[in-house]
Design brief:
Blueprint (H helix, E strand, L loop, with lengths): L6 H6 L11 H4 L14 E5 L4 E6 L9 E7 L14 E3 L5 E3 L2 H9 L6 E4 L8 H8 L4 E2 L8 H6 L4 E4 L6 H10 L4 E3 L8 H5 L1 H6 L5 H23 L6 E4 L6 E4 L5 H8 L3 E2 L10 E4 H8 L4 E3 L7 H7 L7 H4 L3 E3 L15 H4 L1 H12 L13 E2 L2
Parallel strand pairs: 3-4, 5-6, 5-8, 6-7, 8-9, 10-12, 10-14, 14-15
Antiparallel strand pairs: 1-2, 2-3, 11-13, 15-16
């Protein structure tokens, strides 16, 4: 499944990662430190001449799965105890990425010109990268079972950044490695804290030796995000919020501990399913959703809907939901590429502060009077 083809489901399928005990550095006699503050899916052990990057549980429902990579400017600097791990020479200059999220992070580092291959080029929103695609400097390598291995090998990447939805992705990565392609797993989409997703820019920065730049950027985002949370927390009246849209008669509702629920709470809203303790999507029948939806003050992220009329036509029972009759429906599709790529899933991942500002403006329009929507828009 390509993450970007199903944006409505992608928001709510945010499985939490189970962090296994961090023993990698000690296990190999290292004394490095971890830089992650919010992210559960990776750690960086910096030892001066080299770095050990470890990725944890990078696909849904994985448990105690780890991948480690050694990064250095010179391979001879790597101690013998770490020679069994894949080595990547830094800084990288040719990369392939299979997710638009990774495109946003690399572009934020000012390294978009290093991207030589992408998956699903039509779904990319970033203007600079689209220019490179149109100029033929970036190739589309396909996705999922349709990956073009010949194209990938011909691009001669220093690294291919991969994500996986299920464990079957190992078959793909094994084949790529047999062909001599260095594959690095990324699991940023599994983070349940918005800042945890954004913090993966620090992971990507290791491949470019740009840790300081990434830290400065992330610290600004973190500070702004926390200030906005504090602002929204003081609001006495908090609207109740419905999210999502049914998929084939099943409403995959965000869990009460999910990424979507966290954003709603941080923006000063009350998620209608906040009594649920799951980090994953909850499959619900439409009747049980309607029973709570009648109490919603605001409806956000209704899939690919562009108008209220489309929602009314989707299911005639929607016409009985007060929030739809009141027109209090907002979607996160204000910035779309001509082929359906949604920038919410691209730059929005590294700018949770801007996403949060949008949601606060939805929930509490009198708070940020100078803010103009970036990723959200009100349906008419």
């Amino acid at each position: 499944m390509k993450r970007l083809l199903f944006p409505a489901i992608a928001l709510i399928l945010t499985t939490g990662c189970i962090r296994q005990e961090r023993v990698v550095g000690r296990q190999h006699g290292q004394t490095g430190n971890s830089s992650a503050r919010y992210a559960l899916g990776f750690e960086v052990f910096d030892h001066g001449d080299f770095k050990l990057l470890t990725v944890y549980d990078p696909w849904q429902n994985s448990r105690n799965v780890t991948f480690s990579y050694v990064l250095a400017e010179q391979e001879h600097l790597i101690p013998d105890s770490l020679k069994a791990f894949p080595f990547i020479k830094t800084p990288v200059s040719r990369v392939i990425t299979l997710s638009t999220t990774h495109v946003a992070m690399i572009d934020q580092l000012g390294k978009s010109e290093t991207i030589k291959g992408v998956s699903g080029s039509g779904f990319i929103y970033n203007r600079r990268v689209r220019e490179l695609i149109n100029a033929g400097e970036v190739r589309d390598v396909g996705y999922d079972q349709g990956l073009n291995y010949e194209t990938i090998v011909s691009l001669d990447p220093d690294v291919l950044f991969m994500y996986g939805v299920e464990s079957s992705v190992r078959t793909t990565s094994d084949k790529l490695e047999e062909l001599g392609v260095s594959v690095v797993y990324c699991g940023e989409y599994l983070e349940t804290h918005p800042l945890g997703k954004a913090e993966w820019i620090r992971f990507f920065s290791q491949f470019y030796n740009m840790e300081e730049q990434a830290d400065q950027f992330f610290n600004r985002v973190d500070s702004t995000y926390q200030s906005l949370v504090e602002l929204a927390a003081h609001q006495a009246d908090k609207p109740t919020v419905l999210t999502g849209l049914p998929w084939k008669d099943t409403w995959y509702m965000a869990g009460g501990e999910s990424f979507a629920a966290r954003l709603i709470g941080d923006a000063g809203g009350i998620f209608l399913w906040n009594d649920n303790q799951s980090t994953q999507a909850i499959p619900l029948d439409l009747e049980s959703v309607y029973a709570r939806a009648v109490g919603a003050d605001i409806w956000i992220n209704p899939g690919a809907a562009n108008t209220l009329h489309e929602l009314n036509r989707f299911d005639q029972r929607f016409q009985e939901i007060p929030v739809l009759r009141a027109g209090m429906v907002y979607n996160n599709n204000a910035r779309m590429s001509d082929k359906g790529g949604n920038d919410y899933w691209e730059s929005g991942t590294i700018h949770p502060d801007l996403v949060l500002a949008d949601l606060i403006t939805v929930f509490h329009p009198d708070l940020l009077t100078d803010h103009r929507f970036i990723y959200y828009r009100k349906l008419k």
